[in-house]
Amino acid sequence: MAILVVLAGCGDPGMGDDPVNLDTPSVASALQAIDAETIEHHIRVLADDSLAGRAPGTDGFAGAARYVEERVREMGLQPAGESGSYRQAVPLRRSSVVEGESRMTVQTPSGERTLAYDVDYYLSADPVRGQVEVDTAPVVFVGFGVSAPDLMYDDYTDIDVAGKIVMVLSGAPAAFPSNERAYYSSGATKQAEALARGAIGLLTFWAPDDPRLRWDVNAARAKRGSFAWLDESGTPNRAEEDLRASASLNHGAVEALFEGAAVPVDSVVSRAARSLPQSLDLASSVSVRTVSEHEDVASWNVVARLEGSDPVLRDEHVTYVAHIDHFGIGVTVDGDSIYNGAHDNASGASIVLEIADAYTSLPQAPDRSILFLFVTAEEWGLLGADYFVHSPTVPRPSIVANFSLDMPFLFHPLLDIVPYGAEHSSMGRSVAQAAEYMGLDIGPDPIPEQVLFIRSDHFAFIRQGVPALFIKSGFETGDERDGGAINTDFRQNRYHTPFDETEQGFDYEAGADHARINFLTGYLIAETPQRPTWNEGDFFGGLFGSG
Q1: Of 31, 82, 165, 541, which is least packed with CB atoms within 10 Å of its CB?
Q2: Alpha-carbon distance 271 to 268, whole Å?
Q3: Is pTM, for the whole model, over 0.90?
Q4: What does the longest C-alpha to C-alpha distance in the chain come to?
Q5: pLDDT (tens digit per residue) in 55-69
Q6: Between β-strands 369-375 and 280-306, what pairing exists: parallel, antiparallel or unpaired?
Q7: Digit-coded pLDDT (tens) for 483-504
Q8: What does the pLDDT look like over 247-264, one tens digit per residue?
Q9: What does the angle CA 95 – CA 100 – CA 106 come to, to the nearest 5 degrees?
Q10: 138 with 260: CB under 8 angstroms?
Q11: Nearest CA to 241 among 183, 279, 200?
Q12: Distances in Å between the alpha carbon of 220 and those of 70, 476, 496, 501?
């Protein structure tokens, strides 16, 4: 059966605990409380034009957050924010590039070329400095920019990048396991590796066939700036004094930088596609000036709690998280400038609300407490969740497990699931039991190139050592439709555009099933005496599990 895909490597299934029985009147009553029409109502409210895309720091975000707060208060959930409220303040700083005062030039063997902003490149704003420059810095290409000795791969072998600009391909080796590939695809991971080796800048470009290459969409998104959360001293969490230039490159800029190189660009892209490490000093150098402007923005997370019934385990928390922000008002496309974010992520927030309703419908709360988080600024780097795990409103060691609901995929019935993270911890056993109860198949990641494991709020918890699951729909439709083609169509034509609206043919009963599988899995964990553990020898457990 497909469930064996997840069970492999999950460790001893018993761990000395009797399995939790799901076939009870209590569980049945909770599942009956989950209602597809209510999910539809929540989505329509949160994705309505009146909330103008829910960007952090706007009236639209505030309205969405108030709506969520009103719903959890009506359910009788305890406030678990700051000062007895449902809110946790998340101070943000928005940084934007002043394009007219910024520039990038390439010194090639045949002469200097000034690149065109938006056409050839765009810059990342500096979160601290108003202006930062690099003058005629050498450039070194280091493949994917990945150093993973445990996976027998290292692009940095025998190359010195100190004082240089590092140029990398987006993504990571296809030969890596799906979630490890996702981790090493992270721009933050690549930047940290480059800076640790003495680099002073990072240039990123996409292979021509990379499905995430949507230059116009990416460049338009960059115009909205970037956010960072601020610590108590007002320092942005992304402040890197050693990083003096960060840019994304289109094909024209890449060709200029590879002029005169010992290996042509199509050859290095081909080598990368074969998961072969590589590095190369280029014959070109770059000069970059980045001028940034800054604006401090007030935002907040909504945090609610259902206290557990066990006198000891109630001090531990199973957490559910969904982001309520989106991109607000952006570049106009076909006359529409409101980025409603119905699927991303009014859907996930609505489903978490239904999960909360299911828990409050239990005759008795589960042994562990349940924490419901509705966070800000996910679209800008998982910031609301990351701020929470760095400054949690409950004791950090009390957080035993996390579930993230983000764009679960509501375009056909839920027949199979892809539980990202299941193979890394004992949570895999719980989701397998819940899936079997619901009659759902479990399969592997069908789109590893999209690196979904690092792209939602659960990853902020994983980086703090908390086992997590990110349960997405598989591609089984139950009819002649091609689920993979439906997914591709959404990601290419509506994802992060004004067309992610409510009238997309959502299957709201699939949304209810997403609520059920997440509720059941969390309930099993909340009722099991032993807290979830990383599997022995697990990559992420070893990387973050001692945190």
Answers
A1: 82
A2: 5
A3: yes
A4: 77
A5: 999 999 999 999 999
A6: antiparallel
A7: 999 999 999 999 999 999 999 9
A8: 999 999 999 999 999 999
A9: 100
A10: no
A11: 200
A12: 34, 33, 10, 19
Q: Domains of the chain, with CATH numbers? A: 4-74+307-544 (3.40.630.10), 95-295 (3.50.30.30)
The single-letter code of the amino acid at 223 is K
pLDDT of 248? 97
Q: Is 425 helix (H, G, I), strand (E, B) or coil?
A: strand
Q: 187-196 vs 178-185: helix axis angle to the nearest 10?
A: 60
Q: Phi and psi dihedrals of 92, rounded to 5?
A: -120, 155
Count of residues in the chain = 547
78-107 confidence digits (pLDDT tens): 999 999 999 999 999 999 999 999 999 999
Burial 132-171 (b: 16+ CB within 10 A, else e): bebeebebbbbbbbbbbeebebbbbeebebeebbbbbbbb
Identity at 521, one-letter amino acid code: T
pLDDT higher than threshold 50 for residue 3: no
